[in-house]
Structures are given as structure tokens and as C-alpha cells.
Design goal:
Elements (H helix, E strand, L loop, with lengths): L2 H14 L12 H12 L7 E3 L2 H10 L5 H6 L13 E4 L9 E4 L4 E5 L3 H21 L8 E7 L4 H5 L5 E6 L5 H7 L5 E5 L7 H4 L8 H4 L10 E4 H20 L2 E2 L2 E8 L36 E2 L5 E8 L3 E2 L3 H16 L12 H14 L1 E4 L2
Parallel strand pairs: 8-14
Antiparallel strand pairs: 1-5, 2-3, 3-4, 4-6, 5-6, 7-10, 9-13, 10-12, 11-12
Helix pairs in contact: 10-12
Keywords: ATP-binding, Kinase, Membrane, Nucleotide-binding, Transferase, Transmembrane, Transmembrane helix
GO cellular component, one term: plasma membrane
InterPro entries: PInositol-4-P-4/5-kinase_C_sf, PInositol-4-P-4/5-kinase_core, PInositol-4-P-5-kinase_N, PInositol-4/5-P-5/4-kinase
């Protein structure tokens, strides 16, 4: 069994059992000692526990209509499968060293948060405001985080960083893509968008000649097109972005991104821009059609020209300016600008208000409004 399978198994155990371990029939003291011994010498399979489980359970049950049984079912491997088979590894490691998984039913994604500055910021600074905000803003475009897992106890793998110590479980707004492929529909397009006007060393030093193409490909995407929206759709889009990013700026978050999904609309969408993608039979209704009722940016917004369905969410809001690692990066970039070349701030070293301003400008720039 490889590293990814061990990590997946520890995630599944944390979700499907109360204390992160599968229930044992025997309470033999020797068996307990051997289990603790195995945990300590584990490289990849860490003992994970849910952080603030009551808060996330409250969001799922009472505001997102995700009942405990269906949620846990998504993390079950099936009768013939092993524990780790309930999650499928996707994507690559990226700059942050994150691991990504999807549940086999594609309803949820699991992303590791290995950097201490990021998972401590979410736990200590943003978690309570996030939970309170998501209760009062059902149409928020912030990604829905359904659980937060953290390693407990000592182990060699945790101390040496062989496996990520924290993970978030989040809604998958790409849910339905596999079904669309099976139907023969055009594949969905997606972009991870951030303001590109910042200084990116991988791109901007020596015109990117010192960095591999694989590394540069992990930078933010560019959307060379327009999201066609009606006036009402655009107003709601901008209002949600303004409100959501205000929360993030108030808590010093920067470097978040807009994850945009575009799919070709079926012909019947052209006659009614308010018809949801789910209602047209294009994508499944469960999820992401938990409250609010479709159409929404989670289920799919139909463009008034009848050509596309769009989904969008704000992701990766874990980088905070007041944490030690961001402060160190800010110092290094400021020194580079002073001593070597004036390139300006990076997206991870700018101020929260300045980043928000550029982020909103980027979002407004990719929208074209069609007056009705």
C-alpha cells in the first residue's frame, strides 16, 4: 500500500467513526498498547480527529440538508472495497504540498492543509466567523467546508512531515461531470483564477527561463473569455463576491481564488435564462442542489444567450497576512524589491484590502452583461 492509500485510509476512518479509529470488538490492554505503538511508528497513516465536529454537523444537517447517513455513505468503500478505496487521489501536489482526493461518488473533495500557518489560521481565526457567516448567508460563494480534520497524538510521520496533519472536506462543485461524460456531453471546462498582475517569481524572474514549464503550469489560470450574464444575475454575482471577500479581508486572508466551471448548455436553456442546469436534466440534483434552491452558483447559472451553464466558488482562503510564514515571505519580497528589482508585491504578500480590490476587479472584468 502506497503513501496516498495510507493517507486516504486515515481520512476515511476519521469521517466514519467517532474517534478516528474503527471500533474494536476487543478491549484487551495488550491490543491497545500495540495499537498505540503502531500509531507512533506510522509514517503516513496518522490518527486524525474531527475539529469542531458539532459546528460542521450543524451546518450540514440544518442549513445544507446533508444528513449524517448520506454524508458518511460517501466515504464508504463498498462491500468488496478496502477502507482507503473510498477516496480517489486526484490532481498533483502543487506548491503547497497538498494532497487531493475525491469520494468515489464525486460528491465531496478532501484537500490537505499541510502548512502550519494555514491550518492554524483556519482553526484559530477564521473557523468561528466562517461558521457564523455560512449560517446567515445561504447564497455565499465561499466553498462549503463540511469537516475539518487534524492529527492528534505523536507519530513519526507527523513529526517528520511525511503525511499532512490537517485536511478539509468540501463540497465538489464539479459533481456531475462524470455523468455528463457518460452521456456523451462536451467535457466541462474549469479555471482557478487569481489576479495575474502580481509579481510571480516563477513567471517574472528572467521571463520564467529559470523555472520549468511544469512549475509555471501550477500558477493561476487565465480566462480569455467572458461570463455572459443578465443584469440580475450579474448583480447577484457581484453582491456575493463583495460580501464574501469582505469577510476574508476583515480576517487578513489573501491569495484566495475563484474556481470557475463552464459547461455547454442544452438547447432548452436558450429560452429561459433562469432555468437551472439541474432542472434541465443536465446535472444531478443531489448534490449540489442543497439549499438554496437552484439556480445558484453551486448548481449552475444559465447564460442568457443559451450557450453555457456556469458554476463558481471561492477557494483557498487559508493564507493570512499576520501568520509567521506570510510575514517572512513579505519581508523577503520587500527586500528583493529594495535591493534587486522593483517588481511589486506577490498575491501572498500584499495587504488584504488591496488583494480584495484586485480580485473583485478581475471578477468584474470577466463578466459581460446582456441587457434583457
Amino acid at each position: 500500500m502506497g503513501r496516498e492509500e495510507y493517507i486516504a485510509r486515515s481520512i476515511v476512518r476519521a469521517i466514519t467513526s467517532a474517534n478516528g479509529f474503527e471500533k474494536k470488538k476487543s478491549r484487551n490492554p495488550l491490543a491497545l498498547i500495540l495499537a498505540l505503538f503502531a500509531v507512533f511508528f506510522s509514517f503516513y497513516e496518522l490518527h486524525l480527529q474531527k475539529i469542531r465536529p458539532a459546528d460542521f454537523a450543524n451546518l450540514r444537517r440544518n442549513y445544507w440538508e446533508v444528513d449524517d447517513e448520506s454524508y458518511t455513505e460517501s466515504f464508504q468503500p463498498g462491500e468488496a472495497g478496502k477502507t482507503g478505496d473510498a477516496l480517489k487521489s486526484i490532481g498533483d501536489m502543487g506548491f503547497s504540498g497538498s494532497t487531493f482526493y475525491s469520494t468515489t461518488d464525486q460528491k465531496f473533495l478532501v484537500k490537505s492543509v499541510p502548512r502550519h500557518s494555514e491550518h492554524s489560521f483556519f482553526r484559530d481565526d477564521l473557523l468561528t466567523p466562517y461558521v457564523e457567516y455560512m449560517v446567515t448567508h445561504p447564497r455565499s460563494m465561499l466553498i462549503r467546508i463540511c469537516d475539518f480534520l487534524g492529527a492528534s497524538g505523536s507519530s513519526i510521520g507527523r513529526m517528520c512531515g511525511f503525511a499532512p496533519s490537517h485536511h478539509i472536506v468540501m463540497d465538489n462543485i464539479m459533481y456531475g461531470r462524470e455523468e455528463a461524460k457518460k452521456r456523451g456531453d462536451a467535457d466541462w471546462e474549469d479555471w482557478d483564477l487569481k489576479p495575474t498582475s502580481y509579481f510571480y517569481p516563477e513567471r517574472d524572474i528572467a521571463d520564467g527561463a529559470l523555472t520549468s514549464e511544469a512549475t509555471k503550469s501550477q500558477l493561476a489560470d487565465e480566462f480569455h473569455d467572458k461570463i455572459i450574464l443578465s443584469r440580475a444575475q450579474a448583480d447577484e454575482f457581484f453582491e456575493s463576491l463583495e460580501t464574501d471577500t469582505k469577510l476574508l479581508a476583515e480576517h487578513n486572508a489573501v491569495d484566495y481564488s475563484l474556481f470557475l466551471v463552464r459547461m455547454k448548455a442544452p438547447r432548452q436553456e436558450a429560452t429561459d435564462p433562469n432555468t437551472s442546469a439541474a432542472a434541465a436534466g443536465m446535472v444531478p440534483t443531489d448534490p449540489p442542489a442543497a439549499p438554496p434552491s437552484p439556480p445558484s452558483w453551486r448548481t449552475g447559472i444559465a447564460s442568457p444567450d443559451g450557450k453555457h451553464i456556469f458554476r463558481a466558488a471561492i477557494l483557498d482562503f487559508f493564507w493570512a497576512k499576520h501568520k509567521i510564514q506570510p510575514r517572512l515571505m513579505t519581508f523577503l519580497i520587500n527586500a528583493y524589491n529594495l535591493l534587486i528589482s522593483k517588481k511589486g508585491p506577490m498575491s501572498i504578500t500584499t495587504t488584504p484590502d488591496e488583494y480584495r480590490e484586485r480580485f473583485l476587479k478581475m471578477c468584474r472584468g470577466i463578466v459581460e452583461i446582456r441587457e434583457e
